[in-house]
Amino acid sequence: MSPSAPDLVELVDETMRGVFAQLDTWRTGIEAALAAEPRAAALDDAVAKLVLPVLADEDSLLVGAGFIADADVLGTRGVHFAWWLGPLEDNPVLGATTGPTRLDLSTRGYTEYLRDFRSLEWFRVPTTTFQAHVTGPYVDHLCTCDYILTFTSPVRLPGDGAVAGVVGADVAVKRLEREVLPALLRAERPTAIVGEYGRVIVSTAPGMPVASIVPDDAKRFECATAPFAVVPSP
């Protein structure tokens, strides 16, 4: 039986629930680590223990994960990334890697925009709304040079509840395709999954290629867990 648009919405929601649930688990662990010892080195170790087993899983949906700290909280200079990348296939920046690697900003020559990282969507929205957020799809020039979605959630300090930073995870669009494309191919009609602003994330519809913007009047079936929608072709 061909999946209907509501069936596809539930598939997307189920996938997104898994990512958000993982962020919640990590957020709890990071907040506990901050309460125990709010130093950069100790925090980095705690984050690594949380994210590396997931990134090392050969079937992981995530291509990167970690914690981006407000430097004022840790007393460090500039942005503090405790961020790891999963195994990469023929990456134009890092080449192919067989296991998780830590993001090293010193090897990147295009990180000036991070000086004002608090203004970037993946940090600004969750730290001002105190809600989880999805940024993208967009081309990630910092880590993977790939088309990705970034999921972030605010991390709070013990006591006063001030925002310490965000816990996050990157999902490569090509990896997401493996989760949803089989169902899309069996759908009643060619269909696209679009992001918050109507940009196509995954598609089987010739008239709605990936990265294009669907018309404002296209019929949308909204997802519940993230600002995504399923859009069947007319």
Which bin fits the share of residues in helices? 25-40%
User: Oligomerization state of this entry?
Assistant: single chain
Architecture (CATH level 2) name of the largest domain: 2-Layer Sandwich
Nearest-angstrom radius of gyration? 18 Å
CATH superfamily of the largest domain: PAS domain
Tell me what portion of residues adopts beta-strand conformation: 15-25%
What ranges have pLDDT less than 50 throughout 5 or more consecutive residues? none
Cα shape: globular
Element-by-element helix/strand order: HHEHEEHEEEHEEEE
The order of strands across the largest sheet is 3-2-1-6-5-4
| Major sheet characteristics | 6 strands, antiparallel
Average of per-residue pLDDT values: 88
CATH class of the largest domain: Alpha Beta
Protein described:
With 234 residues, the chain is α+β, with helices and mostly antiparallel strands. The chain folds into two domains: 5-175, PAS domain (Beta-Lactamase), CATH 3.30.450.20; 181-232, no CATH class. The chain is 32% helix and 24% strand. The chain has helices at residues 5-36, 40-56, 71-74, 121-129, 173-185, and strands at 64-69, 80-85, 101-102, 133-140, 146-156, 163-172, 191-194, 200-203, 221-222, 229-232. The strands form two sheets. Strands 3-2-1-6-5-4 form a six-stranded antiparallel sheet, with helices on both faces. A four-stranded antiparallel sheet has the order 8-7-10-9. Strand 9 and strand 10 (229-232) form a beta hairpin. Helix 1 (5-36) runs antiparallel to helix 2 and helix 1 (5-36) runs antiparallel to helix 5. The longest helix is centred in the N-terminal third of the chain and has 32 residues, at 5-36. It is globular. 37% of the residues are buried.
